[in-house]
Amino acid sequence: MEVPLFKPYLGEEELNALKEIFATGWVGLGPKTAEFERQFREYLNVKTCVGTNSATSALDLALKIFDFPSGEVLVPAITFASTAQVVDYNPQLTVKFVDVDKDTLCIDINDFQEKINEDTRAVIPVHMGGYACDMDTLRDIINEKLLDVKIIEDCAHCLGGEYKGKKLGTIGDIGCFSFEAKKNITTGDGGMIATNLKDLEPRLRRLRWVGMNRDTWKRISDRESYSWYYEIDELGYKYNMNDIMAAIGIEQLKKLDQINDKKRHIMKRYNKGLSGLDWLSIPEHYDLEKGAHWLYIIKVDKRDEFIAYMAKNEITTGVHYMPLNLHPYYKRKYPSELPNSEEVWLRLVSLPLFFELTDEMSDYVINTARNFE
Questions:
Q1: Residues near 15 by Cβ (< 8 Å), separated by ≥ 6?
Q2: pLDDT band for position 233 (50/70/90)?
Q3: Whole-model pTM?
Q4: How far apart are CA 185 and CA 178, in angstroms?
Q5: Are 58 and 68 in contact (CB under 8 A)?
């Protein structure tokens, strides 16, 4: 039985939405993007949502919008490259890596408390795999030190998840979401910025559309002024979402709660089926009632042998992630020693997790894994 690691849940609804887009001929930034932003805003219950072409773009704009002076941005070591690379897109800023908690793989609070200082401009907590960071403690530490440090939530893994009754991505100053092909919902690629700082919206929209004060859809839909006229107010970027992405996203958003429910069902089966093994640790900290998890990460002795064994049995697994401080670029630029990250990543394995994973498939994954030793 072949079991992939991820598979997007797409159907006739998305195809029909694309047919509508093709019929209108409006495939760029336009009314569907505006509608997706509105629906996403209502889902999160925030004041502003701005669609982008990736979560990487969203994170970059989240840093640019605050016009930080020189300083540091705190980034957990175990995360996708974009979380740190967007810092280097802003030449006045530098990365300072923070170690992770060995159980949750989120920012280690003790290391965060040691490394935050007067040079810190922002922290980018990653809700790793969909598990919520300890946002209250992060905020308390910032407030206790009387620092003006922005919290930019990296929500690439956690769309639909909650922290103490609030949707993830609505707790910090800005939340950044991913709709990349494998995420909780997909638009093929794409991202979203969410914030309750309403005054940021006009400039975010300018920055994502090469600095123009009126994008193409705004100029066409505003009939009271010259539709061709716009002004470039500042240096901007080609970071916009388009209506092809948005049309898919609107249909995907309708399925989000169903997708998250099914993933929790699969994870409960994994937890039950893989418990009791002395060489394998299950993620007991996951929220299997309200959590929205992109990854199911176990910790395994003889990790590489286990991955090869599962592959031989046609089960795809993954490793999320090799600590960034161990990559050549970051070794040269930001040499760091992060003992928790460097120890725990050697045991990390992500198991298949997607909406169309059947009970038969999950049983096959469980039984195959249990027979490893």
A1: none
A2: confident
A3: 0.95
A4: 8
A5: no
Question: Does residue 297 fall inside a structural domain?
Answer: yes
- Cβ-based neighbours of 321, under 8 Å, separated by 6 or more: 78, 79, 80, 345, 348
Convert the pLDDT of each residue in 281-294 to its tens digit.
999 999 999 899 99
Choose among 64, 107, 109, 54: nearest CA to 88: 64
Residues 6+ apart with CB under 8 A from 221: 31
Q: Where are the alpha helices (DSSP H) in the chain?
A: 12-24, 31-44, 55-64, 81-88, 109-115, 135-144, 201-207, 216-221, 243-274, 303-312, 328-333, 339-344, 359-370
CB 315 within 8 A of CB 364: yes
Instruction: Kindly state the average pLDDT of the residues 146-164.
Output: 97
Region 296-324 average pLDDT: 98
pLDDT confidence bin for 182, thresholds 50/70/90: very high
Closest CA to 58 of 228, 266, 204: 204
Longest dimension (CA), the chain: 72
For residue 184, the domain's CATH number is: 3.40.640.10
Which of 253, 274, 303 is a domain's end point?
A: 253
pLDDT digits (tens, 9 = 90+) for 25-77: 999 999 999 999 999 999 999 999 999 999 999 999 999 999 999 999 999 99
Contact of 236 with 244, CB cutoff 8 Å: no
Residue type for 170, please? T
Q: Is residue 5 domain-resident?
A: no
How would you classify the pairing of strands 348-351 and 296-300?
antiparallel
The DSSP secondary-structure symbol of 123 reads E
What is the residue whose two structure tokens read 């949502």?
A: 49
Number of Cα atoms under 13 Å in the Cβ half of residue 277: 22
Tell me which residue of 253, 243, 250 sits closest to 21, measured CA to CA. 243
User: What is the amino acid identity at position 298?
Assistant: I
Q: Does 134 score more than 90 pLDDT? A: yes
Q: Distances from the Cα of 53 to the Cαs of 150, 244, 296, in angstroms?
A: 23, 11, 26
Could you tell me the pLDDT band of residue 221, with boundaries at 50, 70 and 90?
low
User: Is 231 inside a domain boundary?
Assistant: yes
The residue segments making up the domain with residue 356 are: 256-370
Residue 23 lies in a domain: yes
